[in-house]
Design a protein that fits this description.
By secondary structure, the chain is α/β, with parallel strands linked by helices. The protein has 2 domains: 89 residues; 325 residues, Rossmann fold, CATH 3.40.50.1820. It contains 14 helices and 8 strands. Helix 13 links the parallel strand 7 and strand 8. The longest helix has 27 residues. The protein starts with a helix and ends with a helix. The mean pLDDT is 95.
Amino acid sequence: MPWAFLAVSLIGAWFTYNAHVPHFRRGPLIVPSFFAGWLTAELAAHHVTWQAVATVAFVWAGALAAWPGWVGLGVTLASWAGLFVLMAHAGRTKDRMEEALAAGLGRGYRDGFAPGIPERLAAPVPRSRLILPFRFADRNVHCTRDIEYVPGGGPRRSLDVYAPRAGARDAPVLLQIHGGGWVISNKRHQALPLMHHLAARGWVCVAANYRLSPRATFPDHLVDLKQALRWIRENIAGFGGDPDFVVATGGSAGGHLSSLVALTANDPEYQPGFEEVDTSVRACVPFYGVYDFTNRYGHQHHDGMEIFLENVVMKKSLAEEPEAFEKASPIHRVHGGAPPFFIIHGTHDSLVPIAEAREFARILRETSQAPLVFAELPSAQHAFEVFHSLRTSHVVQGVDRFLAVVYSSYLAERAAA
């Protein structure tokens, strides 16, 4: 029993250590390191709980009868200390979000909120979300699923609409674009905390699928999302949404695609057969996105991304056709007319380096005339906001405040017109 306790303690300690020091180098450890660090950093309190239960059980069974058990106890206590540090970092996300918003929008940004918005923002996030992180159902939200935004397009060109169950009229609209490396996942798997939060507070949220690689080749993914925007313009009023106010968001590959949606508004190259449709968005909130397919600034940890993009997504050689990779890179598509951006990235992201997000934010800040907000979240891994956690709660509320500023400006412009 002492040796078994020591073994379990070392496993728990590895989870904690990996969350603090994730594996960045290319190789077989990068995926398990990501998953372990992701779940540990976001569910640190849950890890403390299971480790405490295991410790009590082992001690009751006699684990401290020999020296390995005492070593295991010491390892467990050190692991708990590391987990409490992760919990403290998650708690500080609230301040990090507010600091980022104040830096990008001005310290008095709340003064410009439209009537009724401060009261909506004050609605608390249920604490039960922190206890049951994978429970997403909300009695205040109704979801209409599997609407084909391209007739006959099938599941990969369909979308879900999340709307207030009590109904909405002329409500702001969010377009959510899922990640998954351009090859996996779907509209039901990501950003559920954000979409339920907004829909429960009066927004209409649209989660869209798109064709995936390797069957699809870029820019097929982007063209599909422009088609989803076309559907929103023509149909979202029937769900209570305002077709003139749409913002885009997404994580990872979705962060890449939502950024391109925002930066290529009305570009006929990506709107074959529907060039006349307005595909602009009012703002963009990319989470831990991939912004540079060319790796021009050398921020990628290794050459794995380049090989993957060449063989699976682009089906072109970067060396032979660099222009195609530049056109697919948000960092090379920045222009003065870009809409407001809120870029969010974790410092411990082992899949997409935060340095790339910093570079993208720098270029946007220097080029765009619209506001730019950039938040770096300490100890946050890739995909940190996919389920409920303390960090997710603070980030969702921060995004809500950013969108409230953009929406308030829109309402003021509309009233003055």
